[in-house]
Amino acid sequence: MTDLVIRALDASDAHLFDTLPDPLGAREGHRLTHHRPDWKRIALRDGAVVARGAWWGGPDDTEPVTLNWFDVAEGEEAAGAELLSTAPWQVELELNPPGTWREDPALRAATEARFAAARTAGYDLLVERFLYRWTPECGLPERPGRLDFRPEPDDAVFFDALRRIHSVTLDAHALMDIEKGGLGQAAQSELDFFHWCPSPREWWQLAYTPEGELAGIHIPAHNPSGPCVGFIGVLPEHRGHGYAFDLLAECTHFLVERGAESVSAATDRGNHPMAANFAKAGYPIVRERINFHPVAAGR
């Protein structure tokens, strides 16, 4: 087998990225995503692209925050692993296969080839997630009207609520933050994401019961690709009443009232209560997301 050449791209040769087949439909999945040419890398063998990666971040980010497009040609898992391990950015890897990838033999083989490359490069599986996309044809979920929603300008109030919410959580990213730095780190990671989103800070809302007790929070947001459900969380002492649906319904209405023609969202596959609320609210699953994080020495 001939030697592998791995290199970055720029605006002059960015077209090379598109010469590899796209069995998982990544191009369609990223139709609203802007990838910078200089954050793309390819692996070539005999002049042909056999692996590719597109790292992504917001318009103001100086470095990528994730790698969300990664492909390897058939039989080129080792090339894909080298592409990943030699990259200057060691960030979380997202694979976004169609929801049918487990049942379709060709999709399963293509997805598992990418898994193998990632593991060889020192990445471990973190979580599998459902990706949702609400559109007007889904119908607006009815607002139950049980909670009072209010803005709150003080980040400290949200920080305290997030600590309490994450004290009992099924979210894999929050659990990873808790393991690394406790509840404070998990809460701060959420706040950092909310502030990173280009949507107004004034959109963040607290939800109160009729008795005036804080029940939860919801964060309607825009990420760089469009409107999204930024966060839904119910305080532990108020769980069991179905309030997560109330929060999701309010978040959806809030975004639509401000012009959203679609709303994206995600939840972990293992978070069965939240997945049930998305189904109840009319959010269809459009793809899955498998998150890997780099754990090799020194990363």
Q: How would you characterize the overall build of this protein?
A:
It contains seven helices and twelve strands. The chain is an alpha+beta fold and 299 residues long. Residues 163-299 form the N-acetyltransferase domain. InterPro entries: Acyl_CoA_acyltransferase, GNAT_dom. This is GNAT family N-acetyltransferase. It holds the Pfam family Acetyltransf_1.
Give the DSSP E fraction (strand runs of 2 or more residues).
25-35%
Low-confidence stretches: none
Count of distinct strands: 12
Distance N terminus to C terminus? 30 Å
List the strand order in the largest sheet.
1-2-3-4-5-12-6-11
Structural class category? alpha+beta
Strand/helix succession: EHEEEHEHEEHHEEEHEHE
Helix content: 25-40%
The biggest beta sheet is recorded as:
8 strands, mixed
What is the residue-mean pLDDT, rounded to a whole number? 95
- In DSSP terms (H or I, runs of 4 or more residues), the helix count works out at 7
C-alpha-based Rg, rounded = 20 Å
What global shape is seen? elongated
In brief:
With 299 residues, this protein is α+β, with helices and mostly antiparallel strands. The protein contains seven helices and twelve strands. Helix content is 30%, strand content 29%.
Features:
299 residues; alpha+beta; eight-stranded mixed β-sheet; four-stranded antiparallel β-sheet; 7 helices; 29% strand
How would you summarize the topology of this molecule?
Elements: E1 4-8, H1 26-29, E2 40-45, E3 48-56, E4 66-72, H2 77-85, E5 92-95, H3 105-120, E6 123-134, E7 148-151, H4 155-166, H5 172-196, E8 205-208, E9 214-223, E10 226-234, H6 243-257, E11 263-268, H7 272-280, E12 285-294
Helix pairs in contact: 2-3, 4-5
